[in-house]
Amino acid sequence: MGGSHSREDLELSDSDEEEYETEQEAEEEDNYEDSRDETPDRSASSSKRRPKTPSSLEEVEAKLRAMKLKYPSTAQNINAVKLYLHVGGNTPKAKWVTSEKLTSYVFFKSSKINSQDEEEDDDDEDGENEEGWWILKVGSKVRVKVSMEVQLKTFKNQLRVDFVAQGVWAMKFFSQEDYKRFVDKFQDCLFENTHGYESSEVNKMKVYGKDFIGWANPEAADDSMWEDADESFLKSPQSATPVRANQDLREEFEEAANGGIQSLALGALDNSFLVGDSGIQVVKNFSNGIHGKGVFVNFNGGNYRNSSNMMNSTPKKALLMRAETNMLLMSPVSEAKPHTNGLHQLDIETGKIVTEWRFEKDGTDITMKDITNDSKGAQLDPSGSTFLGLDNNRLCRWDMRDRNGIVQNLVNDSISTPVLNWAQGHQFSRGTNFQCFATTGDGSIVVGSIDGKIRLYSVNSMRQAKTAFPGLGSPITHVDVTFDGKWILGTTDTYLIVICALFTDKGGKTKTGFNGRMGNRIAAPRLLKLNPLDSHLAGIDNKFHNAQFSWVTENGKQERHLVATVGKFSVIWNFQQVKDGSHECYQNQEGLKSCYCYKIVLKDDSIVDSRFMHDKYAVSDVPEAPLVIATPMKVSSFSISSKQ
């Protein structure tokens, strides 16, 4: 465990790479020797027939082209760069080595993203290909589709960019103009690859809308709301993220679980719950984490799977209700289809399934893909009978009481599977492609979609969003919101997006986008990313998931941190640092501000989930509640100090 493992700040000097470069030069020398070997020996030429002199310039060019000699063109000189490769991973021997002392880059369109055929490359680069994706090619070593997966990180003051392409690379430019030309072209290609439109002011307006044009041109956006940080927050550290800050992050407990953990259900009262393949493990909450084994509810030994045709797999969602005495368990139909047409209700005190519910509207069975509590603190309400449901084109509130508000008789075996009452909601006729949702302290709702849009609904209406933030092109796979509704956190595969929902209305009053139209003075979002090295170390198939704010359920208290999971990494950001626009992490960047200041907890196995315990478990000398990290076979608790 420890801090951000980046060694990207190592100097891109030539002194460390002499051995590497010598090998490269030897290779090049061999190539030159091979070329000379093909040249006829002059001493023997008199006894042999001389080659025929080409009859025309066209024939000369044809012969030269056949030899595939690579002479730098004028265009290549304009795009000249020095290319470095990072070697050694996160070991003490990690360093940058010079891959090519002088090479060039080119952007071109191709339908063959991973093609290694040089002739095809030449055809694509020379022709006016209007089809396919924009590709970045650097010398003979790098060929990659321009996308967010490249994880481009800019260093304006160093005339340098770092990126991932089957390895971690750095390019150094020879002038400010060269650097700016590359960054501008990369951003244009990224826009077109992402949205399908050529990068222009008109098309940016088409994608983002006039109210959100600051998202496309961050320099013109109003960032004043970002600086409106509550003074109760700890002030941002003045130094960059500590690379080795183990003293700020301490493991308190680690325990083996009964079975493959699928999800965490953290309680704010006495207990938390580990939902696994074979059942639910009850554990105790303490000020330094969760541990101690209590009751175990076995799925196979009771009436959970055997009595139901709705639950075909391990529950992927566990929702605490009624002062954490009940739990709703939701299982997808299959791994490929996350929807389900019902759920089970577990009585935690008895350890038994009370009933199974069906989702139904107007006499027709319907499906849901996610459920959540009515509000941030709703699981603490002892009389709570409602919760929210989400499907691709549905947003609704379900009630476990009948239409007359009477609790349904769940113990009468003669009654068929009870039906949840659709109490409020809307079925959208057009493809909203809802993916995930969360609630604020007052019950306002934020919904993320596959197209990257994030919609805000007031507590009074699910029919029309008060605010709809445009997508940046990546699907939102998970979403969270602060208790006060001021800040939104969206998860995508390759980055997190933090949105300020505050705005000032015409009367000068500060509101959130949940209860008013934000107008055109909307702050640009900020992105939370792994640096290219950590992204590469996390693994090509590993993606961000389940980013969360720390957990508060009281007005006046503020979330201090954010946490997300990617592969074997649990990644933690200081929220105040994210909001501090003057923080040095944001200096010398291009485009949307991206925060690379984080800590990493590294586990031996892929992490299932990472969540902060309830704020009540924070103690005076460690003002943040413990962080709980679950892998399939273990659960660990960490304390995190205010020095982070």
TrEMBL record:
Limits of the DUF7135 domain: 46-209
Listed Basic and acidic residues bias regions: 1-10
Positions of region (Disordered): 1-59
Pfam families reported in the protein's UniProt record: DUF7135, VID27
Any single Gene Ontology cellular-component annotation: cytoplasm
Record domain Vacuolar import/degradation Vid27 C-terminal: where: 270-587
The name this protein goes by in its record: Vacuolar import/degradation Vid27 C-terminal domain-containing protein
